[in-house]
Write a sequence for this structure.
């Protein structure tokens, strides 16, 4: 397929154009006072909040909410682009054109004559094209660049750790397999224990950081998204703790008045109850599909 053969969706183009025009009006003279006073830095936290709200809607499989949250996330793109346009840096059209050019350039198996029959082959091509792009960009800049410079320091630490580990692995600076990482996790855990005995807060923080870094790379080797894994654990903890609260309330007890053994027993009871509910729900779902 050539770029000229791409279908055009006039209704979609009109809808996106309308949203962009509304954003421009909000930022125009005599526009919205709140929108006018915003800066790139002031709305960063809103962008992060919107990303997590998209995640939440996906995890809840609430597609009505997802539609709304994606709109809120699109607003962030419109906002940044409009502020850049106000400062004569770039426009929303520049953003879209840059994205389109990148997608076409990185999909030569669709828009060119390169063959890529499997997802792995596509990823290999994608990474090689990125390498060439970075070489060209580096040639335009002064001074040497680190392989890790493309990993934003402002991203969440767990994501940053995953990214820089993946980058280092491209030059074979990595553990050979998951067993190697497990050994590193054991080593770092032992170092945490040693610093606990020494009772040095700064060293404890450093060693806990090393332990977390190693666990993130264990997840990478196991092809597990550590953020998703931890969010899943958080969700399970929330559900089990809420079940503990419900059971204790039904029995006229307060969690704060229980000892450690009682709390542990109640936790185990909550786990069993939720597991039974999940099995029942799965059986119902299978029955509906049958």
């Amino acid at each position: 397929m050539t770029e000229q053969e791409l279908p055009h969706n006039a209704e979609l183009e009109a809808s996106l154009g309308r949203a962009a025009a509304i954003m421009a009006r909000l930022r125009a003279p005599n526009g919205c006072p709140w929108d006018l006073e915003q800066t790139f830095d002031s709305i960063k936290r809103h962008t992060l909040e919107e990303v997590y709200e998209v995640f939440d809607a996906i995890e809840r499989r609430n597609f009505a909410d997802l539609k709304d949250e994606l709109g809120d996330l699109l607003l962030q793109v419109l906002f940044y682009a409009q502020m850049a346009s106000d400062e004569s840096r770039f426009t929303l059209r520049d953003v879209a054109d840059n994205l389109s050019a990148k997608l076409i350039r990185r999909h030569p198996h669709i828009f060119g004559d390169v063959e890529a029959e499997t997802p792995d082959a596509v990823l290999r091509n994608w990474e090689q094209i990125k390498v060439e792009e970075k070489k060209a960009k580096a040639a335009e800049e002064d001074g040497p660049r680190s392989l890790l410079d493309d990993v934003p320091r402002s991203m969440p630490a767990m994501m940053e750790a995953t990214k820089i580990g993946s980058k280092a692995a491209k030059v074979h600076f990595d553990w050979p397999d998951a067993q190697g990482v497990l050994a590193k996790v054991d080593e770092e855990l032992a170092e945490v224990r040693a610093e606990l005995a020494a009772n040095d807060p700064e060293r404890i923080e450093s060693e806990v950081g090393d332990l977390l870094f190693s666990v993130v790379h264990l997840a990478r080797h196991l092809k597990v998204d550590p953020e998703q894994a931890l969010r899943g654990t958080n969700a399970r903890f929330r559900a089990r703790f809420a079940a503990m609260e419900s059971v204790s309330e039904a029995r006229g007890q307060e969690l704060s008045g229980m000892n450690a053994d009682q709390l542990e027993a109640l936790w185990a009871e909550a786990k069993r109850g939720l597991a039974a509910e999940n099995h029942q729900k799965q059986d119902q779902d299978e029955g509906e599909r049958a």
In short: The radius of gyration is 25 Å.
